[in-house]
Amino acid sequence: MISPRFRSLLLGLFYAALASLPLSINWFSPWGHFGLLVAAEPLMVLTVGLLGLGVLAGWVARPGPSSLLDKLVGLHLGALLLATAFSSDVRVSAKYVATVLVFVGFGYGVPRVLRLGRTEWRRAGAALGAGTGALALYVLARHVQQGITYPLSYAIAQPFLQHGHTNLTVLLEPLVLGLNLVLLFSPRAQGPRGRLLATALLTAVLMVGAFSYSRASYASLLVQAVLLLVLLGRTAAARLWLPWAVAGALTFGAWQGITWRLALPEEAAAAAAPVIDAGKTPTLLHELKSVSDFTATNESNAERLNRWKYGLVLYRRTPLVGIGPGTFPDRYLEFAQEVPANRRYYTTFRRMNVHNLYLGWLIEAGALGLLTGLLVLGYAVLRQLRRVLHGERSALAVGLALYFVFFLLHSFAQDFWQEPRVIVVFWLAISLQRYAAQAANDPADSPLLA
After folding, report:
1. pLDDT at 296
2. Counting Cβ atoms within 10 Å, is residue 110 exposed (0-12), middle (13-18) or buried (19+)?
3. Beta bridge partners of 434
4. How far is it, in rounded angstroms, from Cα 111 to Cα 430?
């Protein structure tokens, strides 16, 4: 018997997990990296587990017939399971795939089975936005207190690994997109008070992104702005140029003001020495210019190039099913430790992914993993672009199109498939796209009208 109370319980867990998801930083204790991700992941596991139990027991409605998207997602997960069977380390691969299944089940399975309506999607967005906003305020407060340094940026952003700053900024990119859409489509944002508030929020989020030293995020936000101009033309230019000009000027001014007032501490300079010259404070313009620098002087970019080259070597060993999901970090660490004389590996004796989603699929799950992954992502991107290019210019349609495109582009420099704060948002966007398409195709049967 379908139970409304059980469904309400699942929705409560769903909202709680979304609110705690962005706050995966070491707030409570540095010992054991004890942060709120300790709460978010168990909540996701509990939600997905109870959802499966509810479907088996008949407490929630069973999902309808499989769609093409369902089949594509199933094919990709099947490719990961096949690669796990032939993995060089089955235990590592099994843990990795189990984690992916939880993220997919939470971000895609829960909305798919519960058939979220308009109000429920708004509450989910509000929960995720509240957690993200709290994180942005926390980051800004710490930077004002301690200055802008690489070590501080890494310490704030990391959940359980070093150099996790990009994961934070990619979570903020949809928030920037949302603020852009508010400035473009919301009637309240067209008045002086509304534009002032939206510009202030945009400035705060851009400061977090700028202070995080994520060069890929700088490029990704630029692509987002260009896509808005391409899709919406003069409307976007007329409504966005002033808020972005003000936000950009304030961000640049705040960067310079904080770095001049709060000099880089000696211990922070020493910790940052492998990345920048000791005693020198990084500048925003320097970071912007370093996006395309892949020489040995830029450790971060050079290391990406090293991983990509070594990844292709690994792929040629097992081209069909790969070396095993989640095993690249260990294989690369072994390789780096074999050549300690090379200074380029001095600061990289740690497990880290390949920094390219597509190359990661190819190396760890072989040609099958890459093909099925591209089918899922390509289906989402092309489906949404087709809707927009055919004339649908709603905020949701434009927002999803831009999100999928810059996720696709940013994935050339990052591997997000196992990062909770990023990949859960991706699957939520997939679910929201599916909901919007159903609402448009069959309004009479859509939860939108419920």
Report:
1. 57
2. buried
3. none
4. 10
**Model pLDDT, residue 164:** 46
Residue 98 one-letter amino acid: A
Residue in the structure block whose two tokens are 């599916």 = 434
pLDDT of residue 233: 78
d(CA 432, CA 196): 29
> What tokens were used for 378?
């390509």
Please report, for residues 21, 58, 157, 178, 211, the alpha-carbon distance to residue 174 in angstroms, rounded to integers and kept in the order given.
Answer: 15, 36, 17, 6, 17
Three-state SS annotation for the chain: CCCHHHHHHHHHHHHHHHHHHHHCCCCCECHHHECCHHHHHHHHHHHHHHHHHHHHHCCCCCCCCCCHHHHHHHHHHHHHHHHHHCCCCHHHHHHHHHHHHHHHHHHHHHHHHHCCCHHHHHHHHHHHHHHHHHHHHHHHHHHHHHCCCHHHHHHHHCCCCCCCHHHHHHHHHHHHHHHHHHHHHCHHHHCHHHHHHHHHHHHHHHHHHHHCCCHHHHHHHHHHHHHHHHHHCHHHHHHHHHHHHHHHHHHHHHHHHHHHHCCCCHHHHHHCCCCCCCCCCCCHHHHHHHHHCCCCCCHHHHHHHHHHHHHHHHHHHCCCCCCCCCCHHHHHHHHHHCCCCCHHHCCCCCCCCCCCHHHHHHHHHHHHHHHHHHHHHHHHHHHHHHHHHCCCCCHHHHHHHHHHHHHHHHCCCCCCCCCHHHHHHHHHHHHHHHHHHHHHHCHHHCHHHC
Rounded CA separation 365/373 (Å): 10
> Over the chain (450 residues), what is each successive 10-residue block's mean pLDDT?
88 92 60 54 90 92 87 95 93 89 94 92 90 76 67 52 52 80 85 88 79 66 78 80 87 74 49 41 57 60 78 88 89 74 47 83 94 94 89 86 85 77 88 86 47
Residue of 195, 171, 191, 177 whose CA lies nearest to 232? 177
Place of tokens 């004339």: 391
Alpha-carbon gap, residue 26 to 228, rounded angstroms: 35
Q: What is the CA radius of gyration of the chain?
A: 22
Is residue 187 within 8 Å of residue 395, measured between CB atoms? Answer: no
Tokens of 213: 């030293």
Residue 48 CB-density burial (10 A; 0-12 exposed, 13-18 middle, 19+ buried): buried
Burial category of 309 from C-beta neighbours within 10 Å (exposed 0-12, middle 13-18, buried 19 and up): exposed
What is the pTM for the complete model shown? Answer: 0.81
